[in-house]
Amino acid sequence: MLEKIKQLAKDYSGEFIDVRHHIHSNPELSYEEFKTSVFIQNKLASWNIPFEVKATTGVVGLIKGKNPEKKVIALRADMDALPITEANEVSYKSKNIGVMHACGHDVHSTCLLGAAKILNETKEEWEGTVKLIFQPGEEKNPGGASYLIKEGVLENPAPEKILALHVHPGLEVGEFSFRGGMVMASADEIYISIRAKGGHAAAPQFTADTILIASHLIISLQQIVSRNNNPFNPSVLSITSFQGGNTTNVIPSEVKLMGTFRAMNEEWRFKAHELIIKQTTELVAAMGADATIHIDVGYPFVLNNEELSVAAMENAKLFAGEKNVTETELRMGAEDFAYYSHKIPACFFRLGAGNKEKGITSGVHTPTFNIDERAIEQGMGMMAWLAVSS
After folding, report:
1. With CB atoms 3.0 to 4.6 Å apart as the test, which of 147, 192, 273, 321 could cross-link to 55 if both were Cys?
2. Active-site annotation holds for 339
3. Do the Cβ atoms of 142 and 45 come closer than 8 Å?
4. Measured between alpha carbons, how far is 152 from 195 in angstroms, rounded to an integer?
5. How far apart (Å, rounded) are the C-alpha atoms in residues 40 and 16?
6. How do residues 204-220 score in pLDDT, each as one tens digit?
7. 373 included as an active-site residue
8. With contact defined as beta carbons under 8 Å apart, do 82 and 30 qualify?
9. Is residue 58 helix, strand or coil?
10. What is the CATH number of the domain that holds 218?
């Protein structure tokens, strides 16, 4: 079965590179993936794979092998693009100015479509059922995964486990990486407004200096992680935006701060929220101003099931060769695949897509991100293989 899947992936690689080009050329933002959804629906329909539409643009397909009740495995790919203007000069460059598949979701959807075709053609040769999840809105809170789960994507039939891949430009094409346990962090957005009486910069005694207060607050907030969190528990608090004032001689009446908080422990995560709110309101009040703070709770941390991840890693070695399968580094980035991982055993792994010799090294979320397209064959083949071997 392994060799057949590898051969089919090779045979269909050109077809699915074209699929990737189409999706890449026509990117759509989170929860606006209407044309992408229809494109995927049409592909599944052409292969006689039954599907249903969930969460407006999500597509959920079902492929039944022999003894379909024996096990149910879910494979997931995301479909949305980012608000980035593409800088690559390629034939399949984004046609939608200001929108780009800069995180590789075009690759993910293509690989899942390729895996679907392979699995559908070989369904008399493997046991169980494979649920195909093409998901909207990974890039935007509250995450398309949360909507799909609310609409029953993990039911009827209920998958026993779920797998997904993500492109990794830091890995050379042909390489894969896996990790059990904590993999990626939770992500929460912080919004703070500091308001006070402004005034002339030459007469600060008649004001409460919002610029100074905000500066003290930014420094103070750093102590929440450094002096309240266990040093062995990964966590990051970054203030990333400071907006206030527009001239040299006026102390503004309002300053706005924005930032992000990341963690890999849910108990610490919400304790930190309380500390951030307390520190903000009390420090700002002590310095003569008022503060409002909103923490937009985002995705939880990604938790890979240890047993599933070890098994997937060993099966991946059979597909790609032992030297091409490594351990994924711990990352403080976030992924809404986390929602699935807190419901059922999950494995989120990395697909090598870089090529240093060809200069394909740009990171995700950049206007020059691209892949070595041999990754399409590798990704679709690996997804199909892990679906039948897990």
Report:
1. 147
2. no
3. no
4. 44
5. 12
6. 999 999 999 999 999 99
7. yes
8. no
9. strand
10. 3.30.70.360
